[in-house]
Structures are given as C-alpha cells and as structure tokens.
Amino acid sequence: MIATVTMNPCIDKTLTIRGFSYGGLNRVQTKRSDFSGKGINVSIVLNQLGIPVRTFGINYTKNGQDFSKGLEALGIHYEAYMAEGAVRENIKVMNEEDRVTTELNQKGDPLDAETIRAFTDQLMEQLSDPEIDMAVITGSVPQGVPASFYRDLTAACRRIGKKVILDAEGELFLEGIQACPDVIKPNLYEFETAFGLENPSREEILRKAREIIDGGVGIICLSMGAEGAMIVGREGAWICPSDRIDVRSTQGAGDSMVAGMCVAMEKGLPLSEILRYGVIAADGSLIREGTQLCTRENFERFRKEVRVFRAD
Fold it and tell me: Is 46 within a domain?
C-alpha cells in the first residue's frame, strides 16, 4: 500500500481572469476552492484511479474539521495530527488569454518543537503498518520545521523497510537526498537551482543525474515543462516529449505525475513505464481546471496516447 505525507496542507482558491493588469483592475470570471497539499493531491489521484492509499500529515484546530470533511467528500480519510493554527489559503490567478497561472502561497502557521516531535512519533507509528510499502514525502513544510526534517524522515522510513519517493525543493531537497530516497522528482528549475546548473543540455542533465544516482538515490524523474519529462535510473534513461494538449491548469500536475509513478512501481513495471504512467496522470490533470486532478477516465484516455523514448 502507498502512504502520503503532507506537512503543509492548504486550501487553493483559483480565480480565472481574462487578461492581466499589474497594479490595475482585474475582473474575476470564475472562482473555485479546492482542498489541497502536495501529498493530499497524490492521494486524491490514487483514490480516483482506484489505488488504496493512506493519507497522513498535519491539520489545524481552527478550520481543520471543515478541511477534513472536504477531503472525506473526495474519498480521502485524512489521518492527521492536529496542531494549533489554521490551514493556509493559497490564491491562484489564471489568465485565460495566455493560460499562465500566478500563485500567491502562504507559508503555513508555525509548529513548535514539541508539536514536531509529537507529529513525528505519530507518523512513524502510522507508517510502521506492515501493509504500507511506499511513502510519498512531498511539499513544503510549515514555519519552525527544520530543513533536515525530510532527510531524517526518509532515513527513518528506509530503516523500517519502506520505499520513499521525495518531491521537495531547496534545502529540504538537498538535505533529503542525503538519505538516499528510492525516487526523487524535481522539476527542471528545482534541479538547476539545487545543483547550480544554467540552461543545461540533455547530456549535462544526464551526467548530473547519474552522479546523484551513484551517490545512492535510486531513480530521478525530471519534469521539464514544454520539454516533457525524463527519467534516469541505473538501467538507463527515457524521455517523454511534451504533448500538445489543451492545458486548463498546471496545479497539481507534478503531484499527479508522482501518483502515476507510484501506480507503475506498485505493479513492478520497468523504468520506462514508471515515466509513462507519471506523464499519463500529469496530462490527465492538466486538462482540468483549478486543483482538480486526474480521473480514471482521463488516465485511460492518455494511456493510449503517451509514448516514451530512450534518452541515452
């Protein structure tokens, strides 16, 4: 079974406008709210694909009950630790003219050291369930959580025999890879920023990816926007070119990719199929508005269309 961990849940409020006037008046065409957070998004996709998943993380006392009820309506039982504060709200402004989304994300209410310890104890007890074989650790963390948290959590998961997929950025990412997760999934910007690369060629990306794998990471899946996506493992590298689809929203596409990869890994599929399943799920979310995510119908549609090719 797959488990997901969400340290920084959120309510995504998506506003659609037509044209964008910086410092001027922008009239909202449509609006919607979605209960979200990167690990939660992974769980929603897995649930919509009919894959069993457990969903762990942080929730908050002020609006957490409504947040949990919202997730229950989506078929997600959020087994969260309750902390003092409120679930953060993120504003997403999508310009219909150029399909560009501007995000205004809050940091999340702070956690103190005692709360972090209590949450970690609860989480490790939950993850010790022998039915769980894979943990998805993803997203930002609230204020007060140290940059080493994902490294320590990854190491603890590996000690009890769980596979770990890590999707983070910045210091969380750089610290996290030191614990050698089974899979990491940065986007190209995060990859370039983390390793000081500037407009790298495919050969340079492959060289750096293999260096990271030689250091102990199992698989690297790199989402590259208009350039598609690439996966690198010890048995080789594959690339999936970007498809020409009608993108309605990019929110949650990366999380959907992680969910698709999890499905392929649970099935024991080869590296090329792990990439293909990830892209299929991502495409299935790109055609939906707001933070609505890939459904089984979307997955089956793109399953017939997505192709991957050797990259090395």
Answer: yes
pLDDT above 70: residue 248: no
60 within a domain of the structure (yes/no)? no
pLDDT tens-digit profile of 134-175?
A: 999 999 999 999 999 999 999 999 999 999 999 999 999 999
What DSSP string describes the chain?
-EEEEESS-EEEEEEEESS--TTS---EEEEEEEEE-HHHHHHHHHHHTT--EEEEEEEETTTHHHHHHHHHHTT--EEEEEESS--EEEEEEEETTTTEEEEE--------HHHHHHHHHHHHHHHT-TT--EEEEES---TT--TTHHHHHHHHHHHTT-EEEEE--HHHHHHHGGG--SEE--BHHHHHHHHT-SS--HHHHHHHHHHHHHTT--EEEEE-GGG-EEEEETTEEEEEPPP----S--TTHHHHHHHHHHHHHHTT--HHHHHHHHHHHHHHHHTSSTT----HHHHHHHHTT---EE--
- Assign residue 300 a region (left: φ > 0; alpha: ψ between -120 and 50; beta: otherwise): alpha
CATH of the domain at 241: 3.40.1190.20
| Averaged pLDDT, 8-34 | 91
**Domain for residue 64, yes or no?**
no
pTM of the model: 0.90
